[in-house]
Amino acid sequence: MTPEFARENARRLGEHPKRTAAWYKRGVDGRKRRHSLPAGVLPTGAPAGAEDAGSRVRAKAPPAVSRLAASVPPPPPARRARLLVDELITLGPHEMASVVRRLLPLGNFALEELVKSFPGPLWRPSLATDTHLPRPSQISASAAAIVAFDREAVPYVVRLMRHPSGHVRYYAIVMCGAFMETDLIEPLARAALDEDRDCRRVALHILSAYQHEPAYRGALAALREFTSEEAGALVVRRRAISALTQLRDEASASLFVDLMADHDRGIATACRVGLRVLTAHDFGFLREAWLRWLAERGQENRIEWLIEGLGDARRNIRLLASRELWHFTRFLEPLPASAHRDEFLAARRNYERWWSKRHPQQE
Description:
By secondary structure, this protein is mainly alpha-helical. Helix content is 55%, strand content 0%.
């Protein structure tokens, strides 16, 4: 409506022109006319009709997302896992938690990438000892991340135990100490024959923790088969004899006596050492003497063999028997090398009384 028309209409109605113009500005319903906001500006989140408590400055709208960016799909899971693992292996022990949380939902995709980067940069290179086995959280970022997958990671650890690199195999075997899964018994028994001495030592250390599992007896039987296989590689057979000796498999005593007649001198020597450790007796390479001893004492418990060994005329045999008995019974602390034979005989009498109370003879 033009101003001229408004003035003409005011004259007709007898009203003041300015009042009439204000009437048109407010609109026919008496409310103030609304004006659209500038582009890119949003009002604050105050409810309709409420007065602002302070500033009336309007918040800016968030930047608009381009249609091109919105249409780009996220990278596939394998790619996301690779990017996260690349970031993970650069982090320290106290920096990796958020990355591991993002890896866990990726499951096997993440484990595949972690295996490729294992063990990665080591945080503190160290070798396991008889009293200390490094935890995965002390090895590297990839080792700590793998163990976070718990049982799902076991098949991947087993795969790493067969890796061509002895370095990778060693830390994979160390990783087995973080799990208590019977699925690891057979791979650990196989690792006990590894060409790397440290791999064998750690595998035997961990394998001994499963001695109360039925599968453990199967692993020992498999090692005995390796030992007696005449067509097998001599070096593997010797490692199997050593493994059975270190695992203190008393069922191998008769096998070792049989193998004393093996054509390979190294096999016979390894069996003699094994018999000495298992029985706390030593008849040298005299197979007939070992056979007579087996016929008389072979059905007894190994602890009884060791108790008898405390009275042996040789100091080294007495010391061996004393150490082995302490390891298995924790009854009497091992005697020192300076101890007289009479002290070993007294210890034998104490052990005989202790054993008779726990294993009375059947009538």
